Amino acid sequence: YLLTEDDREGIEKQREFVRIALSTPDFAILEGPPGSGKTYSICELILQAVNRNERVLVCASTHVAVDNVLEKIKDHPSVIAIRIGKDHVSEKVRDCQLDKIEFYESRKIKNRLLRKKKKNQLTPSQEYLLECLEAGSTNIISDIFLEAANLICGTTIGILKHPEISYKSSVTKTVYDYLILDEASKTTFQEFLVPALFAKKFIIVGDYRQLSPYIDPEDIEGNLDGIIKSEYGAICLDLFESYFFSSKFKKRVDKWKNQLIIEEEEDLSDYYEQQARALNLSCIKIE
């Protein structure tokens, strides 16, 4: 297990979360800022779950979050992990991709069976497996590992590429004991529903202060309308344009200097001056 350091700060809260998650009949929530130990708590939960012969589905909206969990736990002897998806996968976990497992494991198993064949030690089932591998039917290895795997990892949408989950598959849908959703604040409810259909219990992990990677411009405009006066908004646009052209002409003219001349009411001219100072732009106020 991972949470073994009794003197480490926050260790008891992490252990308490794992106890709650393992005993919950439906869901549990783990919330905390970056660096608070959420990932190690997830890994501890996974290890204890697989040691109880339970299967775990780990999902997140980003590949980075998925791979971050998998990197820390994939080499543990009790974990049989498969990473679903081919694109944007970390080099450190590519050996967990299904096509890589099928390729390398089929070669290893085939060589082992050939050695046993020379000694006339093959069982009927081993003979059949060797015939399949020699005929190029390596997908049988994928089927074996998919059935044996106790940890499946992928993004909330990419998980649909799992052969047993894919909507195109006629195979009976696998039901996992746990769905662990990491970086939940970045995940929409619709994205959550995709893997949630295949799990008995939901473990929601994240930081509510973490922004979603997808932001609707209309929502931003609506929020800012009540905060920034229209006059101040126009000032920000003016200064942005001045800053842009100043940067552009500095590259062409060695001694270029952009000088703002401000002739406005006092409160607006003060705001101009504050924003210009923030952008390191020179300005002259006309009283």
From TrEMBL:
SUPFAM superfamilies: P-loop containing nucleoside triphosphate hydrolases
Alphabetical list of Pfam families matching this protein: AAA_11
Lineage: unclassified sequences, metagenomes, ecological metagenomes
Molecular-function GO terms, alphabetical: 5'-3' DNA helicase activity
Protein's name according to its UniProt entry: DNA2/NAM7 helicase helicase domain-containing protein
Domain DNA2/NAM7 helicase helicase: residue ranges: 12-121
Classification via InterPro entries: Coronavir_polyprotein_1ab (IPR050534), DNA2/NAM7_AAA_11 (IPR041677), P-loop_NTPase (IPR027417)
